[in-house]
Amino acid sequence: MALETVKHMSNPPKPAPVFLSIVIPTFRREALLAPLLHALDAQISSLQSPVEVILVDNSPEGSAAQIGRPPFIRYVHEPRPGVAQARNRGVNESAGSHVVFLDDDETPFPGWLAAFEAAAMRGAAVCFGAIEP
Rounded CA gap, 4 and 122, in Å? Predict the structure, then answer.
């Protein structure tokens, strides 16, 4: 019995495949989205895992509906006010095994998304990244 236990511990099961859903809540900050989406585009292409990006427009009038978006962005309108409503809508719309939140006024550093992917592949359930103003 002990030998089987040791054997099992030396051959841990492979983690489930990783599929990242990046949820970006936005509220009337269309001018900030272009650099953020450009930075994400550069990072997504270097990953091994599939990625979806969900832009959740939280303005009642849907102010981000008409901005130019790369084809990898899925637009969702959530008119109920509040960032919690927008984040929850993004999670409900996501298909990924792991959800990554990114605010509309942030631009990810190079390697940011790869670090989340690596942590998810190691089996992490929750990760947090540093935020620099």
Answer: 23
Compute the distance between CA of residue 90 and CA of residue 76 in angstroms, rounded to an integer: 8
Domain architecture of the chain: domains with CATH? 17-121 (3.90.550.10)
Q: Could you give the 3-state DSSP secondary structure of residue 25?
A: strand
User: What tokens appear for 27 in the block?
Assistant: 């509220």
Do 24 and 100 form a contact (C-beta atoms < 8 A)? no
pTM: 0.84
The pLDDT tens digits for 15-66 are 567 799 999 999 999 999 999 999 999 899 889 889 999 999 999 999 999 8
Tokens read off for 36:
């953020």
Q: How far apart are CA 22 and CA 10, in angstroms?
A: 33
> How many angstroms separate the CA atoms of 119 and 18, rounded?
10
Instruction: Report residue 124 as tokens.
Output: 């992490």
